[in-house]
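Mods, move this if it's the wrong board.
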Amino acid sequence: MRLRHVLSGTALLLSSIGLASGGCGLVLGLGDYKDQADAQASSGSGASSSSSGTAGGSAGAGGAGSCGGKACAPPGEGEASCCFTDSAGGDVCALVVADWGETCVPLGLTGTPDMACPSALVAGRTLAGCCLKEGICGVSDPDHPDLGCVPGAAVGLADEACGDPGCGRICVAAGATECLRRKPLGVFSCAAACAATSSACEAELAAVAGCPTGAHECDDFGLPFFAGCEKEHVALAACREDENCVVYCGGIASACPSAPKLYASTDECRGFCSLMTRSPPGMGNSIVCRMQQLERVNAGTAICSAAGPSGAGTMIDPEQPVCGNSCPTYCWLMEQECPTQFQASYGSAAACGADCVAFTSTPPYDAVTSAGNTVQCRLRFAVQAAAAMAQADKNAACAAADQVSTTCQ
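Not the wrong board. Structure tokens:
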């Protein structure tokens, strides 16, 4: 049987990866190992410090203790209580196991036997392989059953996928990239995020994991976000029904870079997107719908305007509603961002809609050049109002977007 090896004697310096934006914190409480391991290395005590500096929580080293206000189970023979800080900033229960090289490791994660997960040599002891539900191999110790199945990365092992296809396979493949390589436990974090989504998105996840290497940043899916790979990320976000403005605006820049311009700047795109994620449903008027249109633009079956603020336009009819159309979006933006003008000119969404259809329509919408006494011109400035940071800029944009605008004439 294959064995995996890990050096013993010194605490591992491991840090967590955070899956941010929209509440995607690190699943299962795997946290900041680096601070805990530094404390172990400096103290040599075999028990790591909690964030408050008290080993073993409130009861002290070796006792049951508590972490983050929650009682921890009493440690067994050859164990000591320790705390580490999870990605949400809270202390959670963990154990220092002398047999495992004095490393503070998480406990209580469940796993199952898997032939694809080999045994591992940890601190001179052979431990059985196990498969975490996220599809990543771990190790288990019959002498310390309270630990459950410990992720391999927590004890310095290389990430391996379990035998079943899915999240483990996808994230181990993605882990070869710099983005996850430079963040220990990043592959487990990726798999945890993946496991929390529908298996129907496996093809989209695999496409993102297969993006070519290059200049990139890490996004909140726990997978690397590569420049030139926006198409795959938009498809994944749409599959998950995840209204992610970073991915959406990246997709706009990639798929629709030329005139007509959907947004005057990235900040304008982000501002509009952030507001629209709170928009009420109706006529498919959402960021998710616009993401799906970006996918069709990349496939050559849709036009860019349907993915932009107006949400309207097909290859046959430039005014055909797809993700809503200009008037519902304009009226909603005016009500949310320009309430003074909205109340004075319209008073209600119904009245705004009735007056809006009387404006001239000159598609396609353009964030730079739409002008005249048109709905597109007024929508242009309503979008600017949604993105404006300074109150003076918002006031000017709202005045230009108003029914009695002197700009859109």
